[in-house]
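Onboarding guide, step 5: your first structure request.
Type a short instruction followed by the sequence, for example:

Predict the 3D structure of this protein.
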Amino acid sequence: MNNDIEKLLTYIQIKPKNLQLYELALTHSSFNADAKTKHHDYERLEYIGDAVLGFIVADLIFGVHPEMDQGLMSKLRSHLVQSKALANYARKINLQNYIIAGHSIDYDTISKSDKILEDVFEALIGAIYLDQGFKKAYSYIKWIFYNDIKFAEVEDLTDFKTRLQEEMQSEYRDSVSYRLIKEEGPAHDKIFVSEVCFNGEVLAKGMGKTKKASEQDAAKNALKKKAM
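The system replies with C-alpha cells like these:
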C-alpha cells in the first residue's frame, strides 16, 4: 500500500515527511469495521483540508480578479469548491485508485461517488498542509485551480433563470415556464433547444448541451430582450 501512495505523491510532486498522514487521508471510514479501529480514517483531515482549501481559493480569486465584487467572488469560490467540482479534481489525479476502504464498499462505488472523492480530496489537502506547511499547500492548490480561476466566465456563475423569475415577479404575479422543443444530433453530442414562456407568450429560445443549459440560455436571451 505504501508503494501505491508513494506513486500518487510522486505524481503530485510531494516528498512526504510523514507518510502515515497521507495513508490516513486516503482511508475511508468503512475500513474501521474490517480493522476494528476507531477514527482511523480521513474525516479529521477532511475538516482541516476544507478550511485550508476554502481560504486559499478565496485568496487566489481575490488576487486574480480585482474587477470582481464580493458577490461574484463568493459565487466563483462556491462554484470551484462544490462537491461535483472537487470530485472531478480528484478524478484528474486518479485519487479513486488509492482509496483504502473496507469490504463493504467496492471500487465502482468509490469511483462513482462524488461525496467520497470530494472528502478524500479535502483530506489530502489537509495532509499536505500538516505535513508540508502552508506554503506547499498554497502552491499545490494554485497548481490545480489557477487556470479555472483565471479563465472563469462570469456568465457561468450567473443563474439567469432565477434572475428572470425575480424580474418577472417584480412586475407580475405569475411565473415563467420552460419547454423543451427540440433535440438534435447523435446521442453522445446532443443539442437541446428550449423556450421560455410567460402567460402563453414565448419570451425567447435557447440552446445548450443539456436541457438545463438550454433553459439557462433561453432565460439569458429573454433578459437581453427585456433590457433593449
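Each response can be followed by summary notes, for example: The mean pLDDT is 89.
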